[in-house]
Automatic annotation (TrEMBL):
NCBIfam families: maleylpyruvate isomerase family mycothiol-dependent enzyme, TIGR03085 family metal-binding protein. Residues 5-82 form the Mycothiol-dependent maleylpyruvate isomerase metal-binding domain. It comes from Microtetraspora glauca. It comes from the Bacteria. This is TIGR03085 family metal-binding protein.
Amino acid sequence: MTHTRAERAALCDLLDDLGPDAPTLCEGWTTADLTAHLVLRERRPDAMGGIAVKALAPYTASVQEGLKARHPYPELVDLVRQGPPKWTPYGFVPGADELVNTVEMFVHHEDVRRARPGWEPRELPAGLDDVLWKRLRTMARVFFRRSPVGVVLRRTNGEKVAGRMAEPAVVVTGDAQELLLLAFGRQAHARVTYEGDPGAVARLREARLGM
């Protein structure tokens, strides 16, 4: 089983267990909202633009609400569990699901896990932490483009990548999964350590990061 499929299956099992009204780390979203978002990403390419483009966000939000209205929550979860249909880019292009959705499924799995009390980081399957680090290295400049300070990400094994070249700079250390969650704007729930000027650290911890 690929990492993407394993994360997808584990996320869907958790969504089934928690039901539609559980909190997530996505501000203002319940598990029903998050599930509808995932269905939209994979089955409504016409509405994906609003995920990244503010001007298109109202249409994306209306489609997401429509999905919630038309499909009972268990059906939405099942649609996510099925994965992207063959006629969509993620289903049609060989390797696209694994390339794009490994990170998507991992981050949203943690969005649900870490919104619950008593959570602890998972011990990831062999190889997944390396995959997350590879994706992070490729996209670090994008994730930290809005950072108000310079950022250097340092994996616990010593590997480094620059998120943003600027002064003052903050060095952030952690496992790849924790650094990735930081990069996606989950600073409050990422188990990392910060080195640098206290003011710069505070600004980074409050910055709006991610795609």
